[in-house]
Amino acid sequence: TAEDFKNAGNAALKDGNFSLAIENYTKAINADGSNHVYYSNRSAAYLSAGDAYNALEDAKSCIALNPDFTKGYSRKGAALHALKRYNDAIAAYEEGLAKFPTDAGLKKGLEEVQRDKNGTGGGAGAAVGGLFGPEMMAQMALDPRMRKYLNDPDVMAKIQLVQKNPNMLPAIMQDPKMMEMLGMMMGQEPGGEDDDDAPAPAPAPKPKPAPAKKEPEPEPEPMEEDLSDLTPEERKKKENEKASKVKKELGNEFYKKKEFDKAIEAYDEAIAIDPTNMTFYSNKAAVYFTQKNWDACIEQCLKAIEVGKENKAPFEERAKAMTRCAKAYHSKADLDNAIEMCNNAQLEHYSKDTQRMLKNYELEKKKRDTLAYQDEAKAEEAKQKGNESFRAQDWPKAVEHYEEAVKRSPNNAAIRNNLSAALCKIMDFNGAKREVEKALELDPKYVKAWARKGDIEILMKEFHKAMDSFKKGLELEPDNPACKEGLRKVTQQINYGRQTMTEEQKKEQAAHAMADPEIQAILQDPIVQQTLRDFSENPAAAQQAMNNPGMRAKIEKLVIAGVLETR
Q1: Which of 15, 35, 54, 81 could form an SS bridge with 46, CB 3.0 to 4.6 Å?
Q2: How many CB atoms lie within 10 A of CB 121?
Q3: 288, 296 in Cβ contact below 8 A?
Q4: Is the pTM of this model over 0.70?
């Protein structure tokens, strides 16, 4: 069961076997995708395994299924913290604290993310960090002289280090490449100022073979020659691609800062330069999704999909746009379109996360459709049609009408009891018993259903159960004629029926009873086992045990069930 898989996942997580924990939690979710706890636990396992992205997705699923579950917000905050999305992590913890202001876990998580956020920014060198800000990086990308630096992993690693910690700038500037690049950013030509200073010491010109190595500096030349071989249209296209990506990166920076209007403006500029790139439309959709502008998000997703198909974008990118579109439809409570988009996304590029989301949407739609179908007036109408067919002895038609009535009113005990009677007529005793037991679950004081249950159990040769059913009916209504007659019939069957049975029929009845969990429990009782041995080895002790009402009832039940036979 789902709970068994969850418990196995908990044990694996406790032992530090994160992959096994994830596997078991996934099985629990596949068995019951509506349980928020399974997503919460798998989120913890993903985060422990270092997969913060999937941890975040499961945390979101947990909150969507149960917005009043405290740990959902803790899981979301922790995953965002691990992704270094500090502002989003703070927002997640604060959202949880708005609902659970005294929760210690949420408070601690908020303190930790605020501490890490404050530790990564600020400092005396913060202003220097702006030297490699998004606008400057965009300008550098457009300068052919800078290309060799931006393509150098070592240089880019140092730039990122300064972006994260501006105080590292003095140490990084010990690198000649960084000094040279900084000089060019300040407007100097490569080697210009160095040559002015070099003549003073004689040896200085000798190290200047370095400029000879700098001859690769004209490396942009070959690139430009390659571009010059292109047609004007092709060259224009290449230039547009570069310029549009710069605008996209700028939009991404604005998005991270939650400056959504500026982000949309930057993405629009990217689209104006290169309208064939679906990513720009997808990024706009992401902004609208964050703003909860579902219609605008859907519009941009559909446009992204259209552009992606026209320009043969990767299947994975098209699937992502469809998945985001599905989430927007779901947020609008449009489950039909949400499910359709998930299915389309899976055709483009299969994803386990999307498949899980699809199953959740389908389960949600099934519950919604079931509730929407319920109608007491139509249930009564179907019930009357069933009664007419039953009186006309058209049993299959009666079953059909009663089943429709059950769909319209699933909590009506009388309708289920009628369906049980009709199922008996077509010899479907298991189905009949299922429906009458559901009727009694809905109304335990429904005497007519107790009588019906006893009659079915006689037909199934479950005499011990039939006797209990009739007795329960008589406890509620001592003069009920159906229960009285039923008790008489089952008693007669017990007393005289077995005398007319063949040995094979007796074995069949005993085997059927042995499959009953109640009979199994009685037979596994050590005191009952001892009493049964005493009947042959120590009759006096057995007789003394039978003076106990509880023991007598158990032994009688075994006799009635046909497991024991008296002589």
Answers
A1: 54
A2: 12
A3: yes
A4: no
